[in-house]
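Hi D.,

Good news: the full-assembly prediction came through. Inputs first.
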Amino acid sequence: MTEVAARLDANQVLAALGDATRRALIDLLAQSPSSISDLASALNVTKTAIGQHVAILEACHLVVSQKTGRVRICRLDHRGLDALQVWIEARRHPWVEKLDRLDDLLEEEDGVSSPNDGTTAGV
Amino acid sequence: MTEVAARLDANQVLAALGDATRRALIDLLAQSPSSISDLASALNVTKTAIGQHVAILEACHLVVSQKTGRVRICRLDHRGLDALQVWIEARRHPWVEKLDRLDDLLEEEDGVSSPNDGTTAGV
DNA sequence: GCAATAGTGAAGCACATACTTCACCAATGG
DNA sequence: CCATTGGTGAAGTATGTGCTTCACTATTGC
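Then the structure:
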């Protein structure tokens, strides 16, 4: 069930990871959760830029953040990476992709009706 | 050794996959090998554009191509996806990254304790 | 040979977007 | 209270790059 959704935003995940700064951000957050200021000083960019990047990374479920007081702590969100993994597997074994469409037809209980790219940012 | 190399060009792989057209190209090639003209007509872009994209995809080992006669057949190269998979794993389990050097000395199997949160690593 | 097809190279354009500055608000701490 | 710190919003800039057109070469087929 989540496979379909995961494959859909895998596009957004890849678009997000296309940027080197965001990849560096992911690298930092993979080591430890950090605040916006921490990330900004680590990457030598402004806090505004970090905020924009974090917003993008959150939209595709690569990062989660919560603001306590005036500090926003960002941490890695595994769901984005999961979606990416699914995306890779589907391309590494194309026959799975073909069987997957059959799987969608057989499993219409989840209400997956539009095969088009909805790009629903489930937020 | 190969892991380091794979992790290095994973950056290029992600940069390449950041583009929607190149992702569509990968999707097509995951289904079947195709010529430049085939891909061009499938994506409604010029053959020149496809040629440029294929060059980028080849540079990061996502695509291999060989020219027989006047036709260049492009097919998926698994090495790019492999590198991406390694990249993901390294971020999904950051402690593995930290213990990477120790990994050479100690052949630890599991039971690793993360300093951050205790998310169960079900792998 | 001639025409059509497949692909490549150079050059330019147009749009996207990453980053900045400026201004502002909210929380912390002396 | 005032200063500092952490973060956000708006707006502008500028660099990158995806795609095109034009020109050209090299195969294929009649």
